[in-house]
Amino acid sequence: MKKLFMSAVVLFAVSQSFSQKKEPAPATSTNSWLKAGFSVGVPVGRIADYTSATAGLELSGQIMQTQNFGLGLATGYTHFFGKDKNADFGVIPVGLMLRYYPEAKGFFVGSDLGYSFLTNVDKEAGGFYVKPQLGYHDYNWNIFGFYNQVFRKTGYTDVQNVGLAATYNLRFK
Asked: What is the pTM assigned to this prediction?
């Protein structure tokens, strides 16, 4: 009897999950946009012994999955300026962008996760990265502080920086 009851429960649950298919919403100017901007920062951790400052470009595409949750793809370029005759190098991230917006205008929290490629570096030309963010947004602008870390296999010189960024929302028509 238990097996019959459990089979009925499983069959009911499975049939309900298939009966409620929902098509994804099309991208519109109200739920999706490109974000383009710039960032400035300072290196932290051991990499600060070799570099003095960072400047970068931010580019991402976002679609609002719900009224408060955004999902998208992120990329850009961050230039690390060498100090004491150390060479400059760059970081090109390719990742997933996650954002939570409690209100239509106000503070937000988010993170980018993915893989970063390093330029002008001899060994280990990349690694997994995480970039948590806390900021303020309105209809057109996003201004946020961030921490970025690229995890390298050796661990000795993970690429880390903290900074400020501003992006402008370019809406799809």
From this structure: 0.82
